[in-house]
Specification:
Elements (H helix, E strand, L loop, with lengths): L7 H4 L3 E3 L10 E5 L12 H10 L9 E5 L8 H11 L5 E4 L2 H14 L10 E5 L8 H11 L5 E6 L2 E7 L2
Parallel strand pairs: 1-5, 2-3, 3-4, 5-6
Antiparallel strand pairs: 6-7
């Protein structure tokens, strides 16, 4: 059996941390208010409040919502706050910004609450090549959380990782 293939990756002590494992289920929705503005530029309070009152907010049940305005309008902060007051009973999370900012906000909570005891003094590899929209900021936040406790940190796949940190 001198030609036996040995999987050294499987036999290594590397601990894989995969942010995709923590990706929460739920639809991501961009709520663009430009269509609720006069000529997509001016927020008329009375008209805006009418749109808010008549809108079916229940359709956002269990959604993660990114509030935005894709036109060049100047939108007062209270407008997004008013939308949030109506979304809050239904949506899981609401942010002002893009889908990437929404995902970053979601992962901020996940990483902040991540149990890390199992990673103490371990050689870690933070898995890359996500199939889900894991934002770059999530990897940064995870690296910051793990560095004080990890023996070493690498990024990528076990077969082709990039070393990032090794405790001295």
């Amino acid at each position: 059996m001198e030609n036996e293939i040995i999987n050294r990756v499987a036999n290594s002590k590397l601990v894989v941390v995969d942010l995709e494992d923590y990706y929460p289920k739920g639809q991501r929705t961009v709520f663009d208010i430009k269509d609720w503005l006069f000529h997509e530029l001016v927020l008329r309070e009375k008209d805006f409040r009418t749109y808010v009152k008549e809108h079916d907010w229940t359709q956002y049940k269990d959604h993660y919502v990114a509030l935005t305005c894709t036109s060049d309008a100047i939108v007062p902060a209270w407008a997004f706050m008013l939308l949030t007051m109506n979304l809050q009973p239904y949506a899981k999370r609401i942010v002002v910004g893009s889908l990437e900012q929404l995902e970053t906000s979601i992962y901020q909570d996940i990483i902040q609450n991540l149990e890390i005891e199992a990673y103490v003094d371990q050689p870690l590899i933070i898995k890359g090549c996500a199939h889900k929209p894991v934002p770059a900021n999530a990897y940064i936040m995870l690296s910051q959380k793990l560095k004080p406790i990890a023996k070493s940190i690498m990024y990528g796949e076990a077969c082709s990782s990039v070393p990032l940190y090794k405790r001295k």
